[in-house]
Amino acid sequence: MKNIVIDTNVLLSAIYSNKGASYKLLSIIDSSKFTVNISTTLVYEYEEILKSKSNLEIRYIDSILDYICSVGKKNKIFYLWRPKLKDADDDFLLELAVKSNSIIVTLNGKDFKLASEFDLKVMTPKDFLQYIGEI
Q1: Are 123 and 104 in contact (CB under 8 A)?
Q2: Which domain holds residue 22?
Q3: What domain count does the chain have?
Q4: Binning pLDDT at 50, 70 and 90, where does residue 35 land?
Q5: Residue 123: its pLDDT value, please?
Q6: Could you tell me which residue, 129 or 78, shows the higher pLDDT?
Q7: I need a surface site. Which of 82, 90, 105, 124 has the fewest CB within 10 A?
Q8: In the structure, what pLDDT confidence band is assigned to residue 41 with cuts at 50, 70 and 90?
């Protein structure tokens, strides 16, 4: 089974459109083909960004986040390499991916070029879905 960390931009994309790979990934988030890894920091970011940048009612966002928390594998992060990436806000995501040995699923792969230093893969939602045979 593959471990993944989902960048916030993927969730935001899934909320904006039900036609793309981001939505498909979110719709199978409880799949037996992969495990979604989360941390407190990541869930807080999901909440902040989704509530400020989407037009969904807060109760729907809360339901999505509650479901992600119920199926996601919780991780405690004990190391801080910050700053490592160009966008310091992405450092905690890299730390989570290292801790959980996860593929980073993002729409901004260029922001995670240094992930290769940790032997981590970075994929778009579409690439990941192809990788696990879902499309």
Answers
A1: yes
A2: 2-131
A3: 1
A4: very high
A5: 98
A6: 129
A7: 82
A8: very high
**Looking at this protein, which amino acid is placed at residue 129?**
L
Amino acid at 39: S
How far apart CA 14 and CA 24 sit, in angstroms, is 8
Indicate the SS3 state at residue 68. helix
The residue among 90, 73, 72 whose CA lies nearest residue 82 is 90
Centre a 10 Å sphere on the Cβ of residue 86 and count the other Cβ atoms it contains. 12
Taking the C-alpha atoms of residue 83 and residue 92, their distance in angstroms, rounded to an integer, is: 10
9 or 91: whose pLDDT is higher? 9
Rounded average pLDDT over 99-111:
95
Residue 12 near residue 50 (C-beta atoms within 8 A): yes
CATH, residue 37: 3.40.50.1010
Give the per-residue pLDDT at 115. Answer: 87
